[in-house]
Recover the amino acids of this structure.
């Protein structure tokens, strides 16, 4: 079975409202299951690719603080 996680995540959320996407993220995190990590990774990838260098710096700063 060949599953393209990127395409599936994007297709499932395409056209969703910000509230719907937030609910999806919160639900995935609250499950605490390893199987949702690839989907969250796809969302992170999209944010990273679309973000400006300032956005990326802010993300890196937040991650650094979160891991301290």
């Amino acid at each position: 079975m060949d599953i393209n996680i990127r395409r599936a995540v994007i297709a499932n959320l395409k056209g969703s409202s910000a509230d719907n996407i937030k609910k999806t993220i919160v639900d995935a995190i609250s499950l605490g299951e390893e199987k949702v990590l690839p989907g969250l990774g796809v969302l992170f990838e999209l944010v990273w690719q679309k973000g400006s260098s300032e956005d990326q710096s802010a993300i890196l700063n937040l991650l650094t603080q979160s891991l301290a």
